Amino acid sequence: MSTEPTNLARLSMSLPAELFRQLDVMVEERGLPSRSQLIAELIRHALAEHEALTRPEDMLAGTITLVYRGDRGRVRQQLSQTQADYLKEVISSQHVFLEGDQSLEVLLVQGPATRLKELCDALRGVRGVHQLQLVTTTALLPQLHEQEGMEKDDSAAPSRHWANKGAAA
């Protein structure tokens, strides 16, 4: 009699020996209890990226991490203006100064995959931005406010297409 939970499926795979060794090192360094947990995390990340590419109108939530340097006033002003152009997608931001003339900014975002890609492209276009990474998930932030003229339908599962108007915190 099997003691495995019924919601799990078994996967058997073959890897080159060096890749297998690196996987075990990664599991140990992250303090994970098993390879399975790491592989599931990596697959979830790949699926979110895939969904962003193949279903561009679906709503995604995530973060955009930026590292930039240079004339902080000019760069920060341009980044702020770009974020204002995407007010429906940018939920919040956090900024810290790093060593030297570098800064780190993390944006919490939600919106259609195409809009998030456009936002990333616009931010990359700001001179002084050296690194930018978008990390998304298909899980969404709950809608904070009902839209004017729109009734909330509690009978259906949460929609992946609701508008993010008024959700800025």
Written description of the protein model:
It is a single chain. This protein is of the alpha+beta class and 169 residues long. Among the domains are: 17-54, Arc Repressor Mutant, CATH 1.10.1220; 59-137, ACT-like. Chain A, domain 2 (Alpha-Beta Plaits). 36% of the residues lie in helices and 23% in strands. The chain contains 4 helices and 4 strands. Strands 2-3-1-4 form a 4-stranded antiparallel sheet. Strand 2 (90-97) and strand 3 form a beta hairpin. The radius of gyration is 20 Å and the shape is globular. Residues 154-169 have low confidence and may be disordered.
CATH H-level homologous superfamily name of the domain at 59-137: ACT-like. Chain A, domain 2
- The SSE string, one letter per element, is HHEHEEHE
- Low-pLDDT segments, ≥5 res: 154-169
Q: Could you say what the CATH architecture of the domain at 59-137 is?
A: 2-Layer Sandwich
> What helical percentage do the residues reach?
25-40%
In short:
With 169 residues, this protein is an alpha+beta fold. It has four helices and four strands, in the order ααβαββαβ.
